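To close the chapter, one final illustration. This time we ask the reader to focus less on the individual chains and more on the assembly as a whole: which components sit near each other, and how the overall shape emerges from the parts.
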Amino acid sequence: MSEIRVGILGLGTIGLGAARILIEQQNLMARRLGKKLILVAAADRSLDRDFGLDLSGVRLTDDANDVVTADDVDLVIELIGGYEPARTFVATAIEHGKHVVTANKALIAKHGEELFPLAENHGVAIGFEAAVGGGIPCLKALREGLAANAVESVYGILNGTCNFILTKMENEGADYAAVLKEAQELGYAETDPTFDVEGIDTAHKLSILASMAFGSKIKFDEVFTEGISKIGAADIEAVAELGYRIKLLGIAKPHCINGEEKVEMRVHPTLVPLSAQLAQVSDSYNAVMISGDFVEHTVYTGRGAGERPTASAVIADVMDIARVASGGVKYLAPPMGYVASERQELATLPMADVQCEYYLRFMVQDESGVIAAIGSILADHHISLEAVSQKERHATQAVAVIMLTHATTEGNLQAAISRITLLASVQEDVLILRKESFGV
Amino acid sequence: MSEIRVGILGLGTIGLGAARILIEQQNLMARRLGKKLILVAAADRSLDRDFGLDLSGVRLTDDANDVVTADDVDLVIELIGGYEPARTFVATAIEHGKHVVTANKALIAKHGEELFPLAENHGVAIGFEAAVGGGIPCLKALREGLAANAVESVYGILNGTCNFILTKMENEGADYAAVLKEAQELGYAETDPTFDVEGIDTAHKLSILASMAFGSKIKFDEVFTEGISKIGAADIEAVAELGYRIKLLGIAKPHCINGEEKVEMRVHPTLVPLSAQLAQVSDSYNAVMISGDFVEHTVYTGRGAGERPTASAVIADVMDIARVASGGVKYLAPPMGYVASERQELATLPMADVQCEYYLRFMVQDESGVIAAIGSILADHHISLEAVSQKERHATQAVAVIMLTHATTEGNLQAAISRITLLASVQEDVLILRKESFGV
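The assembled structure is written out below.
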């Protein structure tokens, strides 16, 4: 039985998960693959510890360069994370003729456009299923399973930390800061949670999904990104009364404007109808909803993070590559779902031109006429309202006025909001949430 | 650009959908594939009609043999359905060196074990993604995306007709017969609905999923199968009050009993907790939940039938095959997810040995002591109760007594039921529904 020799960079949580599958599941995978996957080497900065796994027979080194240049390694699994030195190690592995599998969304989102051609020139594959949606084989679904479709939209709950926080805020009526602290204590959130809670991780993943869906180049820097740190328990409650739940969504849609194709990409807390499939995805689960012109709506749900689910996706890529290793990567679907020459430099739709429905929360002094004044400015901008509510009335305190609008452009909405915040009785911190409808 | 020449057998709903994608989406698919898919021939018994599609340039014939033996066809899409003549045409196509893609679950479930080796011997591929879950790429997820996992369970809502009927019964409080009639008028159910409503279609699909999940031979004849025709509006209401929804599920699990691997396969109406993802899948949508030892729970949802979704899955298979056509099918994942020599003749777990929790509905004469008598027999069989309810009390009419049991084996439950129906005050038509819990 032929063999594929694997090296791992980074024996953290996911690295050990990948090592565990390669060791414990070797026979099962050989029955599926007709080939043996052998873990021959692993690099980590800290080797003097208990890995909780029998790594005898695996060459351990604290120098990743030993793995990416080793003659006896066919495929390198990069699980260091972050931009550098991951990028340098991956590039070196490719230049040494090794296939690469990674779970590193930051790396692909930021440096994919440099790494894909490098891999193509060296006749090796790059797999990154684990970079989006953790264990869910959603990139494979989009790239291969839905390849006959023009993709009409992608909606994703792509960050388990945010989904965990939002679920807990709703279930416990707790505020953001308290739940974040608890998530950090449980290890569900990093000490510096910025990447997760400010939507950057979701934007990394969305930029990859959008590129694969529409055949465009990856443009992570152009994703409109808002996180969840401004959401309060009161917002979650107010939204629930209107029949919605707040989810941090990544959203991508294609547009054709005056004959020019553009890509809409945005990450923000979103009002999702309680009846939608995505509203049911709770805790640290992820979900991706992909709609195509033939398949209609499809939804993929599963664990978005964690040692074992992420390792499952990593090793699925290893198996795909192992299957074609003897013949060449031309027998694999192209990494981004389109052949390289057909991937286009599509413009990103400016956020000002994006159409949304909005949930607006104004804090106002309860003076008579303030709702009428806000409504009048919105009407000036042709923004019509679906619902208005004002909860409690205190003569001395600011109270929340909540409005749901019908669809308008972001630019128009922001122009109206700028005028509204000039009203003497309206405070400056207007909460603007966007609302989406779904087919399923 | 190299070309793959395609022939279609059967220009019914799905056949026309497949033809439509091949024609309308040709450029998009070429950008993804780097090859052109060309529809060269199509066979149908009835050619003298408006196809609603420009088929000029396509050779139309009323003799399927012309397509399966044609020199200018590389790949045959079989969309005739049923066992014969589909089986003969598929075998002939394979013997003539043509790849085959089919949406025919009956064919694969019944004749797959004969067709797979035939295809392997002739060096051609068989694709059948569309046979299970319609447009959802769930077989690809199981076969490739989760290939690093030992599969722990598969649960599927696999028949859109049944799901449509059950959803409508719940929403309208309507009875089975009335909703079936409406579904037939809308074209959602066949004139003879037996295959759908009696669970046979679901059993076809489940037998394929189970075989792919566990590396066992397909044993459609051994699937325990019960349909939905005995469910009444009152049952749906009673179940809802307990926090459940009835779904027709196909369920497959692996077992190791005294060192022997066995496969549990059953299709029946099932109580699903309202909070479960599968409970949210309504109307004609399908969903498959696959759990693995590394990935944990994953759920795949989408349209389970219909021209366009099913054609999406058919053409995804065509694209997968086209990608490796020049190199050989060894570069594809094996059709059933394990290399042929590793597919085992696993025994099916006898239904009597299957463990379930049960919902029991007894129609009883409201004599004092009857619930105690039933309870006493259940206790004799060590079956403990989670809940008991009796709705209304009429002195002269039979009333429904509903019991939820804790887990017991089907054999034990049936033995107890046989004794209970001997009680003078219990009518014979006991409704037995099974109940499942889910991780998500």
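Chain A touches chain B through 64 residues (CB under 8 Å). Chain A has three domains: 3-135+308-338, 138-303, 352-435. With these observations in hand, you are ready for the problems at the end of the chapter.
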